Each structure stands twice: as C-alpha cells, then as structure tokens.
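Tutorial handout. Part one gives the primary structure; part two gives the three-dimensional structure as tokens.
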Amino acid sequence: MKSGLKILVGLVLFVLFFSNSQNIASGQAGTSTLRGTVTDQQGGAVAHSIVSIKNSSGFSRAQETTAAGAYSFDLIPVGDYEVTVQAAGFRKAEFTSVHALVGNIVTLDVKLEIGSAAQTVQVEAGTSDVQINTQDATLGNTIVGAQITQLPIEGRDVRVLLTLQPGVTPDGYVAGARSDQSNITLDGIDVNDAQTNGINDAVLRLNSEAIEEFRVNTVNANANEGRSSAAQVNLVTKSGSNQWHGSAFELYRGSLFEANSWFSNKSGVPRTKLVLNTFSGGLGGPIVKDKLFFFYNYEGQRQATAKPVVDVVPLPSLGQGIINYTYCTDPTCNTFLPASLNAPQVQQVYSAAGINPAALAALADAAKKYPANDTSVGDGLNTSGFRFNAPLPIKLNSHFARFDWAVNQKQNVFVRLNYISDNQADPINLEAFPDTPIPGIWNHPYGIAVGHTWTITNNLVNNFRYGLTRQAFTFGGDSFGNDISFRFVFQPTNQVHSISRVTPVHNIRDDLSLNHGKHVFQFGANIRKVNNSRVSFANAFDNAITNPSFYLGAGDRVSNDFQQYLNNNGLKGDQNSGQSLNSISETQNAATAI
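Part two.
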C-alpha cells in the first residue's frame, strides 16, 4: 500500500514538474476538439449511437456514444466538418459546416427525432451556439479564413489582426505581460524568434492566403498551450481538398498621394519615392482523390521607396584650409564674434599650406560632392547639413506548400514546407551619402513540419508532430572598408559591419488523449532544441576613428600649440568651458592636422 502511494506521488510530481518546464509541456496546439451529447426530444441520453465526422481533406472518424450519450473527437484537424449521427429507432441527423476552431473545444449537442433511419434531418451548423467554449477558463478569440482574406489588412500582414484582440497593443504587449513572453506556433510547431521571442517576430512570415485560421489566447492559458506567460498564438495553415480551389491578389501603392516632409521642402529636396507592390497566388486540390492532397502559396513584395537622411558635411571654406571658430569680446563671454585661424584679423596666422594635402583634398571633394543645404545640423562655421533621400529597396519572397495524406480510416499524415528569401536595405543604418554602399539585410529562413494523427481506438488518439524551424539572416555592412572618420566634421562611411546568425530549432511534441466515461485525460510532451550560431565582423576596422589626429597626419603637439596660440593672443575659451568651447573643441580637432 505504501509502495503504491509512493509511486502515485512520484507520478504526480513528475507531471507537475514537466507541466511547468519551459521546454516540455503537454499540448494539442494546432488542432481542435469536437464534443457533445446525443439525446432524444425529451432530453434522455441516447447511448450507443454512431457519430461520424468528415472534412474535405479526407479526414474521417466515427465513434459510439457512451451510456450518457456523450462523444468526443480530440486532436482533430481544424476546418469544416460534416457530422452524421445515427441510432436505432431515430431519424439520421446530418450537420454541415460544423467548424472546428483551432485551440478550441467546440460543443455540438444533438437531439434526435423518433422515426425511420431512412429519414434524414439536415441542419446547417456554424452558428455561435455550436462554437462557444464552455469547457475551460481561457480568454481569447479565433480569426477564421474569411476574416483573414477579406478584412482590409495593411500590406496583407496577418500580424495586424493580432491587435484586434482585447488587451493586445501594436507593440505586442498582451494583458500587461512583456512583449517577449508570447508563444507562437504554426501547425503546432514552435516558430518563435529564439532571441527576441516577440509576438510580431515569428521566424516564418505568415502569408495571409496560406493561413486557414488562428487563435490568440490572451489570459488563463491551459497547460497544454505552452511555456510563456503572455499570449498564446496558435496558427494553422491551409490544406488541399477534393475540390480545386485557389486565389490571387495584387496590392499596389504609389507615391502620387504621398506628401513631402516640411524639412525636405525647406531644403529643396523632392518627396521620397514610393512604389509598393505585393502579390500572391495559391492553388490547392487533390493528387489522389480522397487520399492525397496539396496546397501551394507564393507571396512576393517589391518596394522602391526612400527615407530622408541629413548628414554633417564640411563647408567649402574648410576644404580651403580655413578653420573658423568663435571667441569672446568681453570678460564674461556674453558676446562672441567669428574668426578664422588664417585670416588677417588674428595676430598669428596659421597657413593652410601646413595642413596635410590629402586631408584638404578629401574635405574639398566632400564639400563639392555634398553641397550643404540644411542648416539644422553642423556648427555653421566649418560644417553644415546635407539632406538627401536614401533609397530603401525591398525584395521579399515567401513559398509555402502542404501535403495531406489520408493513410486509412485511423491514420493521417501531413507535411508542411516553408522557404523565405528576402533582400532589403537596412532601414536603420542607411547609406552615409548617395554614392556610398547601402547596408543590406538578407533573410533566408525555412521551416519543415511533419504531423501524424493516429486513432488507436475510438477513445484513444495520439498526435505526433516534428518541426525544424531554421532562422538565418545576415546584416551586410562595410566590414572590410576603411572606417576613417573626420571627427566632428563628417563621416564618409556608415561604419556598419557584417553580422550573421543561424538558429535552427528542433521541436518534437506528442499528445495523447483518452476518453473514459465522462472524463477526458490528456498526456503529452513538448521538447525544443535550440542552437544559436552567430558570426560577427564588428572588429574588422582599423584604429583611425579613435585617433583625432590621424586623418591630418599630426599629433597632440599641435593641440597644445593651438591652445598656446589662444593663450598668447588673449583669446577667451578652451577645450572644456563656455559656449565657445564646442566650436573651439571642434576647431581644435580639425586643427591638430597643422
């Protein structure tokens, strides 16, 4: 007796341990449950009646009701079903369009009418009374395929629909929980970004024409849903069927109605170009009728736009070796006047001939190529602003394919494949100037998922899933370029270095559902193996940028000479005080080349 009690306690602790583990939890993500009770017109249970379900992809199941008239189909694929109920002495009842919602327990109670089995009562289901979840305390909402394809979504991005759920913000915060505590699954397989884990950061882009439906549980998630404290996002992809079906769309947006910014107008810079073209097409149907089906979808996006950029550039006078600064005209330094180090008004003139000719040529060339047109940046003495429109080309490609195989009346298999190839300019680290290279982002993840559903007996169902989601991207920068910076004057390159990351995630999960009388027992495990590989060239540059005297070929001696010059000529200001010090400090950094 004591030995048996110890075993029982051990099993309970085992279940509790794994149900709270981050990587292992029972679950049935990506599937649905259809339950109900069969009664007569007086409400009496109809035992041993036969309940059959079938969808358009060849999935079919049959079950005999219990003595209480109950039935339960667990771990079934999402979608519309035809439900048939037969019992001796009653008319056959047929329900069409019974929709099994992802992550939901759908209830369909049936009242049979007395009569001949040859007579049939047909009911059009799909109303709210057969879709209400009365089985648990989870709060959430399901978005079905018609809403995904017909709602006006900007850019046809499914993630926009997440913000329609109560308690969800556009930044991914759900019911006050952190944005990195959400969990996203596609056909029951983990597709989270292993580093950011945000609700908007799924590794695989979710094409609107490829998603059958999805559900977002915002609070009170069950143990079978995952490993995070915030939203549980459960998406299911489309399948083929015995009927050929497909769709296509094109979304175009041009710059005709785009307004120019006030700053660009003031600087005489034309409005940014905008050409956004999103297109998609999908096709599904039977390979072998009632046995093997497929669905394929492609979505592409081409975008040609630009973003206003303003950079600090040298003025033509600096390219001539004329270095300007401000000095005080009264003891309290309330009044400042401009002066030049090689102008006649100073007592000791610094000759431009003493400056490194290569540096002067570079500054003069920059002043000529990038003429100042924006006074909102720079000191106005030696530098000013150059505003232009930096191009942001985007080329996105996403492929999706799914195959469903009805092996027999008890086993079904599906295979899902995703491949993405994206090339785009980095919207954060833009090109430094119009003739410099554009840092780019190459994103090329892929995903594989395999599922096997086995009805072992009418009361015992097993659902196995394996998935590999491989995240891979590269930020391409000027890794091997010369990062010489004319400090406080202008920066000829963007100094963005290449970095790449490859993160394959293997996900194995198995769910077992057992119906026993009025009770349903579920067991399962969810195992993830994450490998994060990262390569960076962040240190692939010389030390020129750290040396304020490098670019003009001098040293700290000239800094001291310049300060001594100010002191000898009674000029107020130094490197560390007053309004003039910013200008003097900038001037000193440029003058160290003398």
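Part three, for discussion. The chain has a mean pLDDT of 74. DSSP finds seven helices and 27 strands in the chain.
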